[in-house]
């Protein structure tokens, strides 16, 4: 095959006259260009390391300090107070240099040390300033003197930071006090328990706080001193990698699209501020795969990859995206994709549904990987998939939202979440899915990073495709095609019957799981954050109160509610939990459902919303309770001690799990371009008898919701809960703005059915 010849740099045969070498000029050229590309990346990486290493200063500032010191010395002053002379005395090569040269070298060395000292001081000051978070709790227009001093962070933040510029200046995640965590936990479970249950929990908490808790806390503080982040490594391992069930539906999440979104490059600051965010998760975006293990999985990341893996009609291909040391143009990538679509070759025996191994239970996949994919052609092909930059699935079905079929949105979301259970590679950091009709979406593995990181990548790529690259009049990507491009390489497999049997078993497990998912997606266009802000309420708090009200109406009870909040204000921070069901929110809902006066309900609503915002700020600033409780529990298991309190905490079910999908539309006009509206992304149900809700705030006038539950649970229904959410949103706005005109339903709003 042509691909095989191009993969070999040279051939040789042994003759009577000696060794006859048949060199391939094209192959050697490719090797040379690949090496050049690799060294260019190393040089760029070294350059970026230097720039980020001295940030918030710049390498050019070193020259400024040197010139300033030399200029001062020229005026016969000694800015070093004798240090330059001391350095000159101890120069190891002073005998071979003139006095003037010795003075110059000593001055440069002193300038360099002074420059490094200034950098260290600036970084320490920046780290100290970034450790202060009380500014987040102060009301608008009432800034304390301490916060005014903290505003100096702008001075030390530097200009034009790179992605990793702030990493060395970010504070470490603090370990909350035991008494604070226990107190807040008891407060969070009060609306969920009767008096007897609460008294029991209070007794367990008091025993824990006065005995075992202090011992576990000591070990956690030791870990926090020793490690960069006392939570993240355990969170990745025990919450994600040690799970032995399928990661499809249970862990992986999906993202939908409109035509595109407009966003900036990967931000390392909170939008609209100079407050930096940790960028550590961005490192494993590409060239990353989750590797199955019998006891625990691992995340494997490679430094570089020049190709992507593509799946189409049961076949796997390697598509190189570099040619002659350059990245292929969009038109060339389209050309190569078309070659895959036109390829008539059938799948190898057992290849078509091979991806089901990544969709089923982890232990069978781990055993199959060792037994059938550790050597030979299977290992080479599996390595090709796992080391690819990312995975692309070319679906042979049509999907996406259509104007004449409202249910198509649900079908589209389900296809992105699990597909056919064998046409995605769920272990890859992310899989991009293209449907036959041109619609697309993304499925991402969760252990290596959280949704905001994937969201930034996804929306930036879509934005670039639409607004910068574009298409010609025939609908093709712009650009020319190099006719010498080698064809995409079809991967070969030798799947034995025993492995085929395991593939079938994994597929059956995955199909049963996928078939149990009830998923409903809708766009709410009656109003958005613009009108909510006029009520002087945080949009997120408003939506969370609506979810609490909807759940109460749906189930006639309150439940432990999970809302994800980021902790990327700290180094290697990931997420924390906001417990949205509070005493204040339950008091408001009881009053509203009990027919209390409107002014009483409004007062209770604002108290509940303010409490929610307070809890959210605590979570963002390292004072949340759930990651602390999680680490205390892990530590107790390491020490081999039982804690009735921690055991009770870990057994509490999250029947309502929520998350806001980040949408970065600050620089795009959604009002005049509604065709770019998307319904964000979503995830599978967390509890067997609960709901998973992902929501997005799109511009000023649109909210979107992705609701998931299990069909096997007779007490839940995604569509019924969606109807309750719509009603709750309208009822809350009607409460806050009594003169609000009657809402129009989605059916009367044709723009709500725009082709996304």
Automatic annotation (TrEMBL):
Its main location: mitochondrion. It is a multi-pass membrane protein. The chain crosses the membrane at residues 50-74, 104-126. One of its GO terms (molecular function) is carnitine O-palmitoyltransferase activity. The active site is at residue 446. Residues 173-262, 274-726 form the Choline/carnitine acyltransferase domain. Pfam families: Carn_acyltransf, CPT_N. It is found in: Mitochondrion outer membrane. It catalyses: (R)-carnitine + hexadecanoyl-CoA = O-hexadecanoyl-(R)-carnitine + CoA; 4,8-dimethylnonanoyl-CoA + (R)-carnitine = O-4,8-dimethylnonanoyl-(R)-carnitine + CoA. Residues 1-46 form the Carnitine O-palmitoyltransferase N-terminal domain. GO terms for cellular component: mitochondrial outer membrane. GO terms for biological process: carnitine metabolic process; fatty acid beta-oxidation; long-chain fatty acid transport. Its EC number is 2.3.1.21. Pathway: Lipid metabolism; fatty acid beta-oxidation. Gene3D superfamilies: 6.10.250.1760, Chloramphenicol acetyltransferase-like domain, Choline/Carnitine o-acyltransferase, Choline/Carnitine o-acyltransferase, domain 2. Keywords: Acyltransferase, Fatty acid metabolism, Lipid metabolism, Membrane, Mitochondrion, Transferase, Transmembrane, Transmembrane helix, Transport. Belongs to the carnitine/choline acetyltransferase family. This is carnitine O-palmitoyltransferase. It comes from Sander lucioperca (Pike-perch).
